[in-house]
Design goal:
Largest sheet: 3 strands, mixed
Number of strands: 3
Strand order of the largest sheet: 1-3-2
Number of domains: 3
Shape: flat
Number of helices: 26
Helix content: 55-70%
Structural class: mainly alpha
Radius of gyration: 24 Å
Distance between the termini: 31 Å
Bound molecules: zinc ion
Length: 489
């Protein structure tokens, strides 16, 4: 049984467990027809449980999946794009979270709890922002229409563990069907794959609902069919090796012509791509290959003037030069992007990184601090500023900055990790362990969080008030742990 370690070890464990227990009992008739969508089937999976399953898989991906893109700029962009689409959906208040997976294959997948993964290959293949929005809108629709829950309920899966295993298996198939294909030997593979892909009815529904979202959000609804058509054309080239997206979301001639029929009725509108869309694509492209290859790739683009946005190509070249450690040259290229009227948090952040890498920390701190005034929501700028203050050993300033950030971003584990580092440098043991405990809680690692609070209790350098806060927090976590153990039984 060969299984690419897709989402870390737990997936493999869950999958093998799943293969032994669940798949053997699955009905082979599932796939072509919509499952019975009675209220009772839906009630098996409460939204709270879905959220919990989604969060635990997401925590696992963040901590163990090497292809998870831990880049605040890429993920922030995807979340901005996603939120705009969700706001135009039938569930505008729903909780969604978008993230990127570093994989050159075109794919996107929806998990429980509104977590949507998008392969970097999808972002790079999209020729316009509307195309990318089309793929994201389609995945949002799978969530708002509860397709995953409806599919799993149809399997009459009773135990929570079984449902989690099923959710992970579905995810493995959608994110890379080779994984499941490899895991499931022989003739069963095709049968199981057809069960794990969404049914054609679900796909058609997600197309229809996604189209409405795209239109209402102000994107060009043609983006969707253009993207699918290009995928289909490329699949003829791939032949048996069709893009993963096509295998997990079978694109049929019928689906494309459905979309085109609707488009024919829509008035034509030209929609400009955002600068951020272009910059995110340039950054991802600049991360491909060796630094030298990336530099020459962008130099060629610039020389041949093959681009939709010169600023984005200059940014890509600057980023490639940054990778090649040619900081002064990178700064020159970046100047043009920084002079853009609208400005860009991504360009400012790279400018700060360039100064810091070149060793001019105070200039870096100034760039980050000023840019944060203009782009207060940018996480990359906040992290860049915090890292620079740390390198400058300005611990008091950094502590004040982190306290202020934590008031707005209460669930950001990175801020707590930075806080712990800062306390450690100043010899404040109790506070260091307390901050680490908060980081672990946000990562869903309760055991480690409890351990840190026990260290904090024994640190012996806190005042009465600080000690009581630690004691209270520890009692709270132990109670939570006892409840979770009870639930598992
Ligand atoms: Zn789909």
């Amino acid at each position: 049984m060969i299984l690419r370690p897709l989402f870390g070890v737990p997936v493999r464990k869950a999958l093998s467990l799943l293969l032994c227990t669940t798949l053997a009992t699955m009905s082979p008739a599932f796939g072509d027809s919509l499952p019975d969508l009675g209220e009772s089937a839906r009630a098996d999976l409460s939204p709270q449980l879905e959220k919990k399953i989604g969060e635990s898989i997401m925590n696992d991906i963040r901590l163990h999946e090497p292809s998870y893109v831990d880049d605040p700029e890429i993920n922030e962009y995807l979340n901005r794009l996603g939120s705009r689409l969700v706001a135009a959906s039938t569930s505008p208040g729903a909780d969604f979270h978008f993230f990127a997976i570093r994989d050159s294959q075109v794919n996107a997948f929806a998990m429980f709890g509104g977590f949507i993964g998008i392969n970097t290959g999808t972002i790079l293949t999209s020729q316009s922002e509307s195309e990318l929005a089309g793929v994201v809108g389609h995945e949002i629709s799978h969530v708002t229409q509860s397709h995953l829950a409806r599919q799993i309920s149809a399997q009459k899966q009773q135990s929570v563990l079984g449902m989690i295993a099923m959710a992970i298996a579905l995810l493995a198939v959608r994110s890379n069907s080779q994984a499941a294909g490899g895991a499931i030997a022989g003739s069963e593979a095709a049968m199981i794959q057809s069960q794990l892909a969404f049914s054609r009815d679900f796909e058609r529904e997600a197309d229809r609902v996604g189209y409405d979202i795209l239109e209402r959000a102000g994107f060009d609804p043609r983006g969707m069919s253009e993207f699918f058509e290009r995928l289909q054309r490329s699949s003829r080239v791939y032949e048996n090796n069709a893009p993963v997206y096509m295998r997990s979301h079978p694109i049929t001639v019928e689906r494309i012509s459905d979309m085109q029929n609707r488009q024919a009725r829509a008035p034509y509108k030209q929609i400009r791509d955002s600068l951020d869309f272009q910059l995110v694509r340039a950054k991802l492209r600049a991360q491909l290959g060796s630094p030298k290859e990336a530099v020459s790739d962008f130099e060629t683009l610039l020389r041949e003037r093959k681009f939709a946005s010169e600023a984005a190509v200059r940014y890509g070249l600057a980023y490639s030069l940054y990778r090649a450690k040619k900081y002064a040259q990178a700064e020159q290229e970046l100047e043009m992007v920084r002079r853009q009227k609208s400005g860009s948090a991504m360009a400012e952040s790279l400018a700060g990184e360039l100064k810091a890498s070149a060793g001019d920390l105070s200039a870096a701190a100034t760039i980050f601090r000023d840019a944060l005034q203009r782009f207060p929501l940018s996480r990359a700028l906040a992290y860049g500023y915090a890292d620079t203050l740390f390198s400058l050993r300005s611990y008091d300033k950094l502590q004040a900055f982190l306290d202020e950030q934590l008031q707005s971003y209460t669930t950001d584990p990175k801020l707590y990790s930075l806080q712990a580092k800062t306390h450690a440098m100043q010899g404040r043991k109790l506070q260091q362990h307390r901050a680490l405990a908060e980081m672990y809680i946000l990562q869903g690692r309760l055991v480690q969080a409890i351990e840190q609070l026990q260290f904090a209790q024994r640190a012996g350098d806190g005042n009465f008030y600080e000690q009581s806060v630690v004691d209270a927090r520890l009692r709270e976590l132990k109670k939570q742990q006892a409840e979770e153990l009870k639930q598992k039984k």
